[in-house]
Every structure is written in C-alpha cells, then in structure tokens.
Specification:
heterodimer; A: 229 residues; mainly alpha; 3 domains; 9 helices; globular; B: 259 residues; 12 helices
Amino acid sequence: MDQKKEQYLEQYNRGTHVIGRIVSLVTMAMLIGAPFLIGHHLGAMPDLKAAAKGFLAVGIVWTVSSVVEFLVYTPMLGAGGGYLAFITGNLINMKIPCAMSAREIAGTKAGTPENEIISTLSIATSSLVTILVLALGVLLLVPLQPVLQSEALQPAFANVVPALFGAMAYRYYRKNIRLSLAPLLLMSVLFIFVPSLISQTSIMIMPSGALTILLAWLIFRKRGTIEQR
Amino acid sequence: MTRELNSPFLYLVCGGIILFVAVICVIFLIRAYRAGKAIGMDEGKMRRTIASSATFSILPAVGILLGVIALSGSLGTPWPWLRLSVIGALHYETQVAQGAAEQVGLTQLSASQMTPRAFATIALLMSVCIMWGMILSVFFNKSYLKRLGGNGNRAEKKAGQAGNGEETKKKAGFGDSAMVAMFIGLVSAYLGSYIGGFISGNGLFSFSGDLTPILVVCVSAIVMACFTYFAEKRHMVFLESFSIAGSMLIGMLAAVLFR
C-alpha cells in the first residue's frame, strides 16, 4: 500500500475514533436523560435508590456479559463496526452474523483496512434496516393499540417474563441438564419455604448464579467441558 | 397509565433518539464507502456487502419487532421501540425490566400496576445496565485495537481454535462456561420462584398459588424446542431469528387460554 493511501487510512481511522467516541457519549447521555425527561413529563422522577438496588441485583450479570462481548467482538468488528454495534445492540442475534457473512462474501480478513470498511458498511446497513423495519412495524401497531390494550389480552402481557424464561430455560438447560438441576431444585425449595422472597427474585440471581458457576467449575475441571455429550 | 405510556410525547422522545442513531449509521456508512473507494476497493463488492447485509437483516428485524409487541403491553410501545432499536436485546430488556419492577414494589411487569415513578425507574435501569459496551468502546476501543495491532486477527484465531476438538476446548478456558452457568443460575432463580409461588404463594404448601407462569414456561419451552428442532435438524436456519420472540408470544398466548 502506498504512502498516500496509508496516510488516508490513518486519517480515516482517527476520524472514526473521534466520531465514534462523540456519538457514543451523546447516545449515552440521551438514553440516561430520556427516563428523567419522561419522568418530568409524567410528574414523577426515577427512584434512584430502587434503580441502584436493581442494578446490584440484575445489572452486574449484564456488566460481566458486556465486558466479555466487548473483548470478543471488537477485534472482529474493527473500530467503526465496533462503535456502531455497541450503540445499536442486538449483537449476537444479528450484527455479528451479519458482519461475518458480509466478510465472507467480500473475502476480507480481520485486522485489515478492507475488513474495517466491509464491517462498518455491514453493521451500518443492518442497523438502518432494523430501525426502518421497527419504525414501520410500530406505525402499523398504532391502530392496533385498542386490541393490544384489551382486557382479554392482559394475562398475556402479565406473563411476558415467564414466557422469556421458558424459552431461555430450554436453550440453556438442554445441553446442561445435570448442572441445571441443582440450582433449580435449590431455588424452588428456598422459595417454597420462604415465599416472601418471591417478590425479590432478582436478588436471588447472585447466589443462584454463584452456586451454578461453582458446580460448573467442578464439572469443567473434571471433564474439560460443562456440556453433556 | 397505558395511555401515558403510549402518549405522543413518548413517541417524540423515543423517535428523536432513534432518528439520531439512524443519522449516525448513515454517517458511518458514507464515510466507510468513501474510504473504500479511496483505497481502491471494488465498488461492486461494497455494494454487494450493503445489499447482502440489508437482506440478511430483514428477518431478524421482524423477530425484534415481535419483541416490541411482546413488551408493549407492559411498557407501552414507544419505550420498547427505543430499547430494541438502540443497544437492546429482547432477553436483556425483559429481565432488567422485571428486576427493576421488583425494586419499585410491583409484583409483576404489567401496565395495569405501572405508576409514573415505577416506569421512569424501570426505564432508567434498562438504559444504564446495558451501557457497558458503549462505555468500554469510548475508553478502550482505540487502545484495544492498537494493542492487537499487526496481529489484528489474533483474538479471532484464538476463538477459532477453541472450536477445534476437545483438547483445544479445554484450553479455551472456563470463561464461556461460566457465562452459561451464570445464565442457568439466573433462569433457575425465576423458575424456582414460579414453583415456590404456586406451592406456597398463598400459605406454606397450600398449592393454591398462580399456576399460569409455570404453564407459560412449559409452553414457551416446548415451542422453543420445536424452533430448535426445525432450525438444527431440518436446516431451517432462518427460524432462529424468530425463536425467542416466537416462543414468548405463543407462551403469552397460552396465558390467555389458561385464564
């Protein structure tokens, strides 16, 4: 690559980091500001104490997950793709496979300038399509609001969380049945004998998670994997 | 409260942020295209990348839209629309919203129980808990990529090796397994609470609590098993994009029928 191109790429990369950092900070400010703005409009500000307790209960899990995602995916996505992917989300189910597929089509390798460009093009396009599909869908949902808010459908929306955990239980349990039995049994017994804890289930994630990690470590040390064959 | 959660003001705030993110994507897209042209990349290849990424994204985007519908009954439409357009992911949003709802004293994540203060708190926690990817990008993206430097694909090579046989799996370390274990612990805590709620929710061993969550869990898990079967055994890979949202919606529908 000649010197002129190298200089151009250096300038491009520097610009990507400057723009990436600025837009990430602005997006963060808007996302944190929005609940306060909405709260002001509705006449009640967020309960910061409850938010802090909620963060300690469920946020820690996602913090660890985010660090792992950052370390694993940033080298695959490059600078521009990385900033965009962490702003627009849906990494595992959409952005990563999309960028990998684009890279295969273009035949580029990680760490090269070509891959940086293909990855950015791919993530930006994917994000725009998602935004467009969701905007059109939401527009179509507006006339459906009376149906969605009908009394008959309320049990469905009241059970959105069990519906999620049913799907996730199958996904995580199916290859780790033996590992899953212990925390499930222990948590069930705990909630049966201390039902007052049910309203604080999120707090119980930590002991349940810690126990499962400990058991997983013991299995991993013995067999080199936690998955059942 | 449902009306406030779907008010034009909320659409305006959420739509404004989404529009900002869309503009960011356009800026990155144009810059990358120009840079590719400047370094002599094949324009046809770049256009094919854009076209393939667009077509690749349509089905998963419809799956994400189903997630907006799933959350709209609890949090209104504008907020889930924002959350799933910017940073979010359906499984994350639902869990964090439930965790926040518990902290503000709601027994379930539902519009009928929602108060303005509860909603503002849930919305704040949903925003804060998933920001770490962005925060790490702001502070470490540049230095991390620079450190990988000439060996730009070193981390990927490592990840690739991890999939080659049992020995390399062992070498790949305990990190991935620990994350799986953490999520098993998380799911088990909630499933345990549904079982405990049914058996002792109305008094120790009264067996008169709410059975609906357990039935919904079962239906949703069975539907997920069907999605997995068709995706893995029948090679209908496109179904993966709908598996979580589809299982959730059918599980939620079952709650209406059980009622």
